[in-house]
Structure formats: C-alpha cells, structure tokens
Amino acid sequence: MVDPAGAAGSTGDRRPAVAWDLVAAELPDGLAVVDRAGRFVQANPAALRLLGGAGADLPGRPSPFALTEDGDGAPYGLPDDDGVERVTTWAPPAGPRRELAYRVRPLAADPSLSAVAFRDVTAELHRQRRLSAMARVAVTLSAQSSPVANLDALAAEVLKADALTGVEILTVDEAGDLRVEGTAGFERWPDFFERQREVERRGGALRMRDALRTAEPVVVPHRWSAIREDPAWRPLHDYHTRPEWDSFASVPLMIRGRAAGVLNAFFAPGQTVGQRTLEFLTSMAEQAAIAVDYRALLQRERNLVRREERQRLARDLHDSIVQQVFSIGMQAKSLEVHAQRGDWLPAESVHRVAGEIGVLSQAVLEDLQAMVHELRPSVTAWQGGLEEAVRALAGRTADRTGLRFALTIGAGLERIEAEMAEDVYRIVAEAVHNVVKHAGAHRVTVRSAVRDGRLRATVSDDGRGIGAAGSGGSGTGSGHGLKIMHERAARWGGSVVVEPRRRRGTLVRLTVPLGGRAAMSADGRG
Questions:
Q1: Rounded to the nearest 10 degrees, how much is the dihedral formed by the CA atoms of 38, 44, 46, 49?
Q2: Residue 446 lies in a domain
C-alpha cells in the first residue's frame, strides 16, 4: 500500500506516517488517497466503513470519485474549486448503494496522487427527494387535471423518491372491489381485476385487505417469494415478475376516518422498510386520499347540478311550454266542437282563433329553441375555449331572436381552467336566456376580461328592467335560474349581482377570483 506521507516527501523517519494513522483514524468522515487513474491507494477506517468494509481488497480498486472536470481534463481541487462538494454513487460488495458527497485535493508534492474527503449523504438526499416529491405532488394535485393522471404522477413520485420497484394506488368501489387508480413501475393489464378476483377465489390472501380492514399500514418482508410459491397467485405471477421486487408495504388512504383505498409499495431486493419510509408513504397516501376525496366530491357536485338543471328545465316546461301547448289544444278543440255541431262561424272568429294558435305555437317554438341552446356541447368542445363559446352563443341567439349583440372580450380568458370556464359560460348563457325570455330587449352587451387576478363578466340589456310590468315579475327570469347562477359562482368563491341599469334595462355582474375553488364542507356542500 502506498504511503501518502512518503509520497508527499517525508524526511525518512516514520513521524509523517504515524501522523496519517493517528489523524486519519480519528476523522469521522472518510479520507482516501487515489492515484491518477482514480484507483484507491489508501483509506482511513471511516472510509472503509462508508465503503462497505472493503478492507484489504480496496487498494487498486477503481474509486467512484471523478478527479477531473468533465470534458476538458482540468483537475478538481484547484484554488477556485475550494469548498465545492460533489455527489457520486458507490455500490459496495454487499448491501444497498450509497450516495457519497466528496471533495478532491491533489497532493502538492506528488500530483499523481489526490486526497479525497467524503461522507455518506444517502439518508440526507433521500429526505430531500421525499420533500421534493411531496411538494411536486401538492402542486400536481392542485392543478385541475384528470384525477387518474394525478394519481399516476403521485405513484411515479413515490417510486422515484424511494427508488422503489413499483407503486400502486387502489380504491374500493361500492361493491368492495379494488380498482387501480394510479401505478408506476408495473404495466397496466386490461384484465388485472379479473385476475385479482381469481386469486381471491383460489384462496390467495391480499395483504392490502388487512390494511383496509385495520386502517393501519401493513409491511410484509419477502412477500414476492411467498407469492411465487403460492399456486393461488398463479394468475398474477407474470404481472409480479417484472420488475423484480422483494418486500411489500400497504398504507391505507384515510378519508374522514374510513379506509377508502391503499397505496402499495414494492421494494427492491435488499431494501428495508423502516419507520421513516412508512412515514413518507403515509404522507403520500394522505395526498392520494385528498385527490380521491376531491374527485368524489366533484362527482357529487356535478350530479347535484345536473339534477337541479333537470328540475329547472322541468319547471320551465311546465310554466311555459306545457301551458302554451294546453292553450293551443283548447283552441283547436273549440274549433273541432263547432265543426261537429255544424255551427256556422264568422270568418273573423276563425281568423282570431287561428291567430292565437299561431302566436302560441311561435312562443312554444322559441321556448323550445332556448332550452335546446342550453343543452349545447360543453365549453371544452370549442377549440377557442370560453371566448369562442360566448361568441357562438351570441351568434346563435342573434340568428334565432333578432337581438343585436355587442361583445367585448378582454385578455386572459385562455388561462381559465376548463371547469371554471364551463360554469362562467352557463352563467352568461342563463343571463342571455333571461333577456330573451323576459326583458323585451333590442340589444345585449356582453363584456368579459381578467383583471387584478379576477375574472369579470357582465351581461346588460336595454329591456324592461327588474320588476317591470309584463316582465313576468322580474327582468332576470325565475328565482330558480338565478339561484343556480349564484351557486355556480360560489363554487369558485365568486358572486353574481343583478341590478337595474341607470337608464333602462338590467345588468348582471359576475366576479370570480382566479385563486381557486371555495372551500367545501365534508359533505360536499359549500
């Protein structure tokens, strides 16, 4: 073994070598001497421990430390390189990989040798990766994209942060069946659930069921070897063969005290499942539970809106169209009765009845057309988003009714997420529908823009105004329609104000902050 003290130019006595032994032995960090080719020459006891106890086999072995800058061959450890710590990976003869932070300093008396001080930062970097993963997941889940895509991203973050083999996120449906919602590391099999049910029918134990039943994490060392030897698991043997794994952990997704699913982690051979690992998996399971709960709340809210829309349409049908059709039927019936009796009717009477039937038929047609327009495709069907949808609404309504529209569309609407744009469109469409149905207006003005972090939109008309005679009691339409407009705005922390214009007509003013959705209570109500 080369003596670094001698290489540095000793006086021939043993004092420098003794100094190396004494100092190097006491250092808590690893200290090694490597040659120009990057091979180990000598190492202190701390270095041997950090390198996995290589011992007498270490001299002459390649080190993981880079001694030159990439590309230009300039050596590390130059004056302007002081204090720079680099990170490398070391695979010991036995045990898991380690990440080492190191500094290099050439020996002044012998440039062919360099001293390397290093320390194990595996746990430190692991913690940093976990924190970064949790931060990225929080940002991803805050974006209003596909919940399944969110859970796939969450599974990928867990996989990367802990260098796992595979991750699954599953939920339990109403029938008690488990459904994969997010996965990383494993392929998605179209018949996975059928195979999983077959495993259970054969008597194979799904240990994640224990996590669901107890609402506590379950850790199973060497789970793959047990599955491989269990014939009941044969339908999923090929699924679990790639990639290679060993131990297994299942953490429940807790939603308001109930286990609604699990996060399954599959560990590579040699990995251990410690307390910090379980704490990280539990934190990520909490994030997954938030995503699953949000999706369920969103679906319930959508179902509620659909139900209220159906009720409103039914009420409108009954209040206007059904009554008008009934009147048409009564008028036609009166003519039929007179004809059956052979009564002679003056032309004026026939003309009057026919005119009333014509007016009623036209009113029915207009109301039906208005309702059909409300059942238009979603805003997301329009390539131009909210702006294009509003322009199309104005064009269709103008063609149908003869109303003149003035549109002012400001900048920023393209940044609005699809779900918020859908609600904004419906509020504007309801306001326009109310103008057509109640206001007796000639002109409608629609303005919208994003300013100061808020979406602002107005719909104004030159009609009869709020509460004017002959307007059906309100220039804004039915109370139910207005209630739905308020609820749609409230979903996003916004508001709708309806007020008379200064001279003539009605103004509907919508304001929605772009910061996010209003908080909802546990039962999904605002």
A1: 70
A2: yes
Q: What is the CATH number of the domain that holds 87?
A: 3.30.450.20
**pTM of the predicted model as reported, rounded to 2 decimal places:** 0.45
Q: Are residues 252 and 388 in the same domain?
A: no
Please give the pLDDT value at position 18: 44
User: What is the C-alpha separation between 185 and 173, in angstroms, rounded?
Assistant: 24
Q: Which domain holds residue 69?
A: 4-120
Q: pLDDT digits over 367-392, tens only?
A: 676 666 555 555 555 556 788 888 88
196 and 274 in a single domain? The answer is: yes
Q: What is the signed CA dihedral for 229, 235, 239, 241, rounded to 10 degrees?
A: 20
Cβ atoms of 39 and 62 within 8 Å: the answer is yes
Tell me: do 144 and 162 sit in the same domain.
yes
* The two three-digit tokens of residue 408, written as one number: 């002012």
Rounded CA gap, 263 and 158, in Å?
A: 10
Phi and psi for 8 in degrees, rounded to 5? -80, -5
The answer to whether residue 2 scores a pLDDT higher than 60 is no
**CA–CA distance, 121 with 129 (Å, rounded to integer):** 12
Residue where the block lists tokens 């238009």: 376
Amino acid 524: pLDDT = 32
Q: Are 104 and 83 in contact (CB under 8 A)?
A: no
Exposure string for 453-492, b = 16+ CB within 10 A, e = fewer: ebbbbbbbbbbbbbebeebbebbbbbeebbebbebbbbbb
Per this entry, what is the length of the chain? 526
Looking up tokens 């339990």 gives 172
Average pLDDT of 195-220?
92
